[in-house]
Amino acid sequence: MNEIRFGSQICGELTSAASREWLVPDGLGGYAMGTVGGLRTRRYHGLLVVPGETPASRKVGLASLDPAVLLPSGARVRLGAHEWISGDVDPRGFELLERFDLTDGLPRWRWRIGDVVIERELAMLHGRSCVAVVHRLISGGPVELELAAAGTWRDAHGERRADGPPLRMDPVDGGAVIEGAYRLAGPGWTPQGHWWRGAYYREEAARGLHPEEDLWYAGQFRDTLRRPGDTVSVLAWAQDPAPAPPPATEVVAAARRRNREVVASAKPADDVEATLALAADAFIVRTNDAPVEVVAGYPWFGAWSRDTMISYEGLFLRTGRADLGRELLRSYAATLSEGMLANTADTGRVEYNTVDGTLWFLHAVSRHVTVTGDTDLGDELLPALQSVVDAHLAGTRYGIGVDLADGLLTAGAVGAALTWMDARVYGVPVTPRHGKPVEVNALWINGLAGVAELAELAGRDADGLHRLHDRATKAFRDRFPTPAGWLHDVVDAPAPAYPLGGAAFHDDDLLRPNQLLAWSLPNAPLEPDPVVLGRVGAGLLTPLGPRSLSADCPGFTGRHSGGPAERDSAYHQGTVWPWLIGPYADASRRAGLPVDDLFVGLEAHLTEYGLGSVSETADGLAPHTATGCPFQAWSVAELLRARR
After folding, report:
1. How far is residue 497's CA from residue 483's CA, in Å, rounded to a whole number?
2. Domain boundary among 207, 241, 259
3. Which of 110, 166, 209, 369 has the CA that lies 20 to 30 A from 627?
4. CB atoms within 10 A of CB 232
5. Neighbours of 246 (CB within 10 A)
6. Cα–Cα dist 359/396, whole Å
């Protein structure tokens, strides 16, 4: 596995150190997360972020644990880092960092104060909301070490202020229980109990969100590091009825062993694939409601069916988790209603509001059976898959149904954004794509072929499915090519001057990446033409993957930045989406084009933003600064799948 390592030139320069983030998941949807320099730049950063009933309903507990070294001379050297609403950054412990590394997925910092070197390691206890922080004297000493515990207890999407009630602190042996929610334990505990006012989060300010909150200084731990090798450790865990966790050093050692086993079971071909295999592990979680679920992205997303199914092959089949994937597919099949897969929203509501999520589910089941030979699962789920086809033929929610005139799938309803390009601003879809979207119909044709194959494996009659497939394929080949050579993004779309359902329609020929699925899927309706694919690549390809709209098209927005409305307006109007490297690579392989060079920029990106992982999005214009979630499931999954 790649070891990610930075020296003082990165660690000691605030912009560089604060723009590189690490993540340690707990296997339940919670996490510890922060930056190389120790500066909390997001409201979501913390050492103990606890999952709720759903992965998205997280709460921030322990925010920081700030070390200070008391030298024999009497000097007190603070090693933490905070930014304040005044503009001050104080303390500036990152300036004393001589190294940061991410080894076996675990972060490790090393501060040098003259001849005294202090190291910190951090890990979570997998399957439990528990963080262990271990400090070790590497050289010098003896020295006293203080650890100031600052925290809160609030929704991860919000903030807490000092004008509200103080946090309740109940004393317990070796520490305190905060708000009855989480416990702190370590040596030499001295309670404090007052507010640190005006913590500032630069990333929230850049996203146009409220960037300020107050932190509760709960107290400090203190102990002596007498000789090299001595440790001072702190544990923090959600207050649950389970026994107290093991010692912190054991938690770190167990996490390191587990991460190595995760990588080994994936049988990686190289160090990059090993890094991606461990990155994939972060998104596969156990929740109260499901034995297995997929977190779409950290730090703010929960589970979304579309993201889960697009990620399925990379996360499960490429990492040796087919048995776990089998359970996930079965649990999702149970959510089908009127031929549509549930899309569990981050609000906790169950919604049926995608046209493509269900079709990606058909694809995931087909790939599972093809890759693993698990025909038993295919037989078990075949009635559910056939019900999807039947419901789409009959017509289902949001105007989703088969056009009997050509066998293609159409969809659209006022105010709805049903495809993966689902951004809305003030309730209005930015890219509504009503009509017959190109990737939806590629997925429909691919799905029909996949279900037909499963039916035949089960000894069932698949003639009707083949007729549907052949008819839709012929219509696709007739309707989607444009005079420019690439494919229409949507055909039979309501003309802009007419309301949905009006008499006038048009075909949208904007150059977007959705057409890649028409060439890349296993049962794609078209064979790629190298010349056409070259034109598509010329308009869309960047070092971090394809843009969502060519820079030559009207409406192109090259920067995915600003407040929520500005970012959502740009989300699918030129912003780069790394997950699309998978379809692009597949189409290129089928066209006989080389693909190895496609991954170079994304491989380098593993050390640039979310360390060891791949971001949700990036700017459409150079230098293609990463945006969105630093750790995104389908980005990791598709890079992992496409490289292999």
Report:
1. 24
2. 259
3. 110
4. 25
5. 14
6. 14
Closest CA to 256 of 278, 284, 283: 278
**pLDDT digit string (tens) for 116-128?**
999 999 999 999 9
Cβ atoms of 560 and 617 within 8 Å: the answer is yes
Give the type of residue at 590. Answer: R
Q: Residues 349-377: what's their mean pLDDT?
A: 96
- CATH classification at residue 252: 2.70.98
Residues 349 and 250 in one domain: no
Q: Which residues contact 132 (CB under 8 A, 6 or more apart)?
A: 122, 123, 124, 125, 233, 234, 235, 245, 248, 249, 251, 252
Neighbours of 617 (CB within 10 A): 27
**pLDDT single digits (tens) 133-181:** 999 999 998 999 999 999 999 999 999 999 999 999 999 999 999 999 9
pLDDT score recorded for residue 1: 57
Q: Which residue range forms the structural domain that includes residue 295?
A: 267-643
Helix or strand holding residue 358 (H, E)? helix 357-372
Closest CA to 583 of 524, 510, 507: 524
**Domains in the chain: how many in total?**
2
Tally of CA atoms within 13 A in the half-sphere of 396 that contains its CB: 20
Each residue's pLDDT tens digit, 563-621 = 999 999 999 999 999 999 999 999 999 999 999 999 999 999 999 999 999 999 999 99
pLDDT digits (tens, 9 = 90+) for 206-260: 999 999 999 999 999 999 999 999 999 999 999 888 889 999 999 999 999 999 9
In a domain, 5, yes or no: no
Residue 484 counted as domain residue? yes
Question: Which residues does 416 contact at the CB level (< 8 Å), separation at least 6?
Answer: 353, 398, 429, 432
Q: Does residue 117 fall inside a structural domain?
A: yes
For position 321, which CATH number holds?
A: 1.50.10.10
Phi, psi of 335 (to 5 degrees): -90, -5
Asked if pLDDT for residue 2 goes beyond 80, the answer is: no
Task: Flag whether 242 is in a domain.
Answer: yes
